[in-house]
Amino acid sequence: MTPKTSPADAPDPAHCRPAGVDDATVEAVGKLTEALETIERARGHLYSFHQLTGGADFELGEAADLLEKAGHAEIARRLRTELVGRNVLPGRWTFQIVEEYDEDYYERVRAEERSVRDELLQGRRHVYESELKESRRTRGAEGHEARP
């Protein structure tokens, strides 16, 4: 069976290389976007760290309560004093780490990636990946459509 093709079986123009842009530029901007995607993943892990650490702090408090009920008041007091509510870094709880990461790093990388795309690719996103998709898909075959 021969795959069917149609004029709509082409990539979305929003993902196509602007006229005059060379391969090296598309590859370089693609690598910058890939770095941003990796940073997005790291940020997600940071939020997981934030939530897990916060949950553990409440569990430490519950453990102290249970130890006190079990007759170990001095150990419970020690846990509350030394561990419950403790900073994870000097002067910082995890929400402060998340805020600093977002403001001092994440937002800057995100803004620069957008700025470079605006300067070099007319703001178009995922041009490298769109071209990769075109090189790997079977035109006209089910499950290989260019776009929805």
UniProtKB/TrEMBL annotation:
It comes from the Bacteria. Residues 1-20 are annotated as: Disordered. This is Uncharacterized protein. It comes from Actinokineospora cianjurensis.
